[in-house]
Amino acid sequence: MKARNADLWSGLALAALAAYIITQASGWDYSGPDGPGAGFFPLWYGIAMLVLAAALVASSLLREPERVNWRGAGRALAVSAALAVSVLLFKLAGFVVGFAALAFFVVWVMYRRPWPLAAAVAIGLAGGFYLVFPLLLGVNLP
Amino acid sequence: MDILSGLMHGFAVALEPANLFWCFVGVLLGTVVGVMPGLGPPATIAMLLPLTFLMDPAGAMIMLAGIYYGAKYGGSTTSILLNVPGESASVVTCLDGYAMARKGRAGAALGIAAIASFVAGTVGVVGLMLVAPPLARLALAFSSPEYFSLMALGLAMVVLLAGRSMLKALLAMLVGLWISGIGTDPFSTTSRFTFGQLELLSGIDFVVVAIGVFALGEVLACMETRAEGKALPVPRGLRNLLPTVQDLKDCRFAFVQGSVLGFLIGVLPGAGSTIASFISYGVEKAVSRRPQEFGKGAVEGVAAPEGANNSETGGALVPLLTLGIPGSGTTAILLAALVLWGFKPGPLFISENPGLFWGLVASMYIGNVMLLVLNLPLVPLFAQVLRTPGYVLYPLILGISIVGVYSVSGSLFDVSLVVGFGLLGYLMRKLDYPAAPLILGLVLGGGMERALRQSLMMSQGDLAILVTRPICAALLAVAVLILLIPLFNKLNAWRLQALE
Amino acid sequence: MKSRIVTAAVAALAALGGLHTPAWAQGFKPTRPVEAVVHTGPGGGSDVLARAVALMLEKEKLLPVRMQVVNKPGGGGAVAAAYLAEKKGDQNTIGFFTGVWLTGPLTSSEAKVTLRDLTPIARLVLEPAVIAVKSDAPYKSLPDFIAAAKKSPGQLKQSGGSVTSRDNIVRQLLQKHTGARWAYISYPGGGERIAALLGGHVDMMVIEPAEAGEHIRAGSMRVLAQVTDKRLPGFPNAPTLKEAGFDVPSVPQVRGVVAPPAIPKENVAYWDDVFQKLAKTASWQKFLADNQFEDGYQNAADLAKFYDEFTGRMRGILQEAGVKVVR
Fold first, then answer.
1. Sorting pLDDT into bands at 50, 70 and 90, what band is B232?
2. Interface test with B, best of A87, A96, A99, A121 (most B CBs within 10 A)
3. Rounded mean pLDDT, B9-32
4. Residue B163: exposed, middle, or buried by beta-carbon count in 10 A (0-12, 13-18, 19+)?
5. Greatest CA separation found in chain B?
6. Chain A: which residues have CB within 8 Å of chain C?
7. Three-class secondary structure of residue C296 per DSSP
8. Which of A91, B12, C142, C319 has its CA 20 to 30 A from that of B214?
9. Which of A56, A76, A53, A51 minimizes the C-alpha distance to A66?
10. Computed from CA positions of residues C271, C276, C278, C284, in that sequence, does the dihedral angle turn out positive or negative?
11. How many CA atoms lie within 13 A of C180 on its CB side?
12. Which residues of chain B have a CB within 8 Å of the CB of A122?
């Protein structure tokens, strides 16, 4: 992707979303026997979204594009991927294990701290959550 | 029974040692529940319901109400410190509260939140005591068209929440409306935008989106750099951890308008505290002499919504106790509790159970004082959380967010959703889309669609119903005025430029 | 006094800490706290019923373990039903169903689980309803209201729940029987329905007797008729639909208990027995009387037959009402 114009791309994405909303909404009743139907409201905000997204695209083409600084985005994406993996781990191994792994990853890989420290933080946090939530508050963990 | 003797009687009930104890248990539990993101008063009250059968109803009611208003105090804590909304009504508090914390003023923000909560909580009780029955009858004048206009008024606040680009703010708001529409249509039972997912039939919980977009989005953005060495600045010395006299002066108006607006909106059974806090924030910004400071750590921006969501509690008890009509999830479970204890909530409830009503009112005065005493000393303590280095703080926020979301629904599906919304929140930050309008659209979307469709059912499809009813038309007019604010500001700037 | 406080506080802490009553694990008895799944949030009709049942089971010592209410709202019962179906074979889970669990799947193609897929346990209550207007309304009887609706078709309004709810079904039946027509305004929250009537924004509503009772006593509502086969003890002076001259079937709201699919026979027998005993207790009878519910107890075998009959009747009514029926 050309890092040319973030507004253009996000505008196009929103226009696509709007198009999706409008197609879906037009499949539902616009008005039923007792009043407006399920498609009534989504159709109108879908149209509004399409118009505004088009305006955003147009203005982005007319104006000098502002550069978005994508440096560091890789790191953020890595963390969100780690989050997704940890959710899988919750399912397989439970919250305490999954969360400890996540915390370990953040401290060790993202912050480049020595691994004993990372392990300490991970175990400390995961243990702390286990102590506070299920034991003290009676809230179930995943 | 007139008010004075009623209140005397009420204090006699509330000051019984057992009731004082339950009041304390209630507000303490409420604070804890409020601090925990996700876990809210309805779930807590439902969990404790079986125990209340061992108790005297007055004590039980006092305790459950304590949980209800106590949670509003606690809700601000994580919003300010971690950008994790502790409770749906404290989303707005994130905007300026977290900005203040980043500037090293977390203590001041927490202190102002506690003071605003105290002032507004007390105003709410005074309102409940003095004007409950007549106000409840007035609130009945509100029906779907009026609710639609109220929501439109709330939605108009988007122009005040916009960042640099109005277009992007509006688009974010529309995405919020769309997210609010996911799930089963309550009227026709058509399922909308569910992608065939059963989990989406009940819609996406507001807490999931708010925590994802605010808290996780923020964490992801902070992960971009490894500059964790220095934690957020936390000034030393108690004096610097509490609000200054100047802060209190700045908040004078916010205290008053937040309290009054919150109470009035609370009385309406179809509105709710999140709307109250958004509207109060908007009003504060609209009349402020320094609107440019909002979102960057304006202390009024914390006081107004925190006040509004606290006095809303007093307001919400009005239709419950005077008419037996619940306006929110929490009041619905309180109503169920009353029924299960063998009371008959309805128009005659107060006159037939004066001891319970006045005892509750008196206990709320006491409870508010307890909460202030309980919360203020905790402020410096909580502010220390920010001293923890980033590599501990951020995993901590991740954990709190995940547990918070899970505690709402107990579903891992919601946990994966929150990860997705975290990514969305991060991208919005990068691309300069403001998050608050998205949340605003999400909060108001469902109610607005319902109210509009109900209005059109009433009028047989005639949109004129929205302008022929006086309250409704007046609210719409205010909404239009708010929409004109940016235009007016532009004209003014242009005029000043021309003058120079 | 003090010791009672301490005991209660200890109980509160115990509950918070998630400590449970120890289970007697013998025979076909639940071995851990029973999960009772409901499709409403806290405070909703099913939620309140489930919590009341939990209390009574505990008080009458019919269940050796605690019963915890689990809220799975959404999709008109579809989410809760699907959750139960996932718990296939689980002996420590039950669910509280209502009529929408039967009517919901008729109109929603996403609802993959119908009540037929779950194991029937017991039908517990039939909730009657009354037709009420604001006390200063000009209509003194149901024929008055119908006549007014005929005079200005579509101008009078009724407030109620979703289109598949009992409120709308009663309206459809009456409209079809009389040829009158009035508007229906759907309010998802029960409170708003009543507020709309009291505020004069709608003209009539179908309301549960216990809810209406207080407003009638306070003089803010009047009952025109009751949607029942015989007069309720709480409303000796209001005619039933038939007595008022409208020969339409009275549609009750049903509530009862189901279990996950494919549970062992002994397990079904155990639950059957528990609820049969519950239905005979004094506290259950008092609960019914307090709420003006009808005793709708049916055992597991009869409940299965009831499903089919009820579903068939609802399908017909919904189709006539112009609601799209998918199965």
1. low
2. A87
3. 92
4. middle
5. 75
6. 32-35, 134-138
7. strand
8. A91
9. A56
10. positive
11. 23
12. 395
Instruction: Tell me how far apart the alpha carbons of residues B151 and B448 are, in angstroms, rounded to a whole number.
Output: 6
Task: Report the C-alpha gap between B69 and B310 in whole angstroms.
Answer: 7
Q: DSSP secondary structure string, B170-210?
A: HHHHHHHHHHHH-EE-TTT--EES-TT-GGGGG---HHHHH
B168, B395, B416 member nearest A87 (Cβ): B416
The one-letter amino acid code at B499 reads: L
Question: Which residues of B fall within a CB distance of 8 Å from C183?
Answer: 457-458, 460
Identify the pLDDT of residue C123.
Answer: 92
Residues B83, B89, B95, B97: what is their CA dihedral angle, to the nearest 10 degrees?
-70
- Whether this prediction's pTM lies above 0.95 is answered by no
Locate all alpha helices (DSSP H) within B57-143, ordered by sequence. Answer: 57-82, 91-102, 106-139
From the list C17, C18, C183, which residue is nearest A34 (CB)?
A: C183
* Closest CB from A38, A83, A138 relative to B192: A38
What's the average pLDDT block by block, 10 residues per block, for chain C (327 residues)? 41 42 51 85 81 86 85 76 85 89 78 83 91 92 93 90 83 89 84 87 90 87 90 89 88 89 88 91 89 87 87 82 73
pLDDT of residue A134: 67
Contact criterion met (CB < 8 Å) for A38 and B178: no
The more confidently predicted of residues C280 and B43 is C280
Tokens of C69: 């209410």
- The whole-number average pLDDT for the span B277-293 is 88
The predicted structure's pLDDT at residue C58: 84
pLDDT by residue (tens digit) across B426-447?
999 888 899 889 999 998 888 8
Q: Could you give the C-alpha distances from C208 to B481, C52, C292, in angstroms and in order?
A: 43, 18, 9
Structure-block tokens of residue B330: 């929490």
Torsion angle of alpha carbons A63, A64, A69, A73, nearest 10°?
A: 50
Please tell me whether the interface predicted TM-score (ipTM) of this complex is above 0.95.
no
Cβ distance A79 to B219 less than 8 Å, yes or no, reads yes
Residues 155-194 of C with CB under 8 A from A: 163, 183-186
Contact between chains at A139 and B407 (C-beta distance less than 8 A) = yes
Would you call B347 and C69 a contact, using CB atoms and an 8 Å cutoff? no
- Per-residue pLDDT at A1: 41
Q: Give the HSE-up count for residue B45: Cα atoms under 13 Å, Cβ half-sphere.
A: 33
Which of A7, A24, A76 comes nearest B220 by C-beta?
A76
For chain B, give the number of residues: 500
Residues in chain B within 8 Å Cβ distance of C163:
187-189
Mean pLDDT is lowest, of A84-88, B91-95, B184-188, for B184-188
Mutate to test the interface with C, among A31, A34, A130, A137 (most CBs of C within 10 A): A34
| Comparison of pLDDT for C148 and B500, the residue scoring more | C148
State the CB neighbour count (10 A cutoff) for residue B376: 15
Q: Above 80 in pLDDT, residue A84?
A: yes
| Structure tokens given for C219 | 């003089």
Phi, psi for residue C294 in degrees, rounded to 5? -90, 145
- For residue A28, the chain B residues in CB contact (below 8 A) are 185, 188, 190, 192
Write phi, then psi, for C205 (nearest 5 degrees): -150, 155
Asked if B274 contacts B140 with a C-beta cutoff of 8 angstroms, the reply is: no
Q: Give phi and psi for C21, each to the nearest 5.
A: -60, 135
**What is the C-alpha to C-alpha distance for residues B360 and B346, in angstroms, rounded to an integer?**
17
Count Cβ–Cβ pairs < 8 Å, chain B vs chain C: 181
Phi and psi dihedrals of C186, rounded to 5? -90, 125
The pLDDT tens digits of the residues spanning A92-139 come to 877 888 888 888 888 888 777 788 888 888 888 888 877 777 666 656
Nearest Cα of chain A lies from the Cα of C244 at a distance, in angstroms, of: 26
- pLDDT (0 to 100) of residue A139: 60
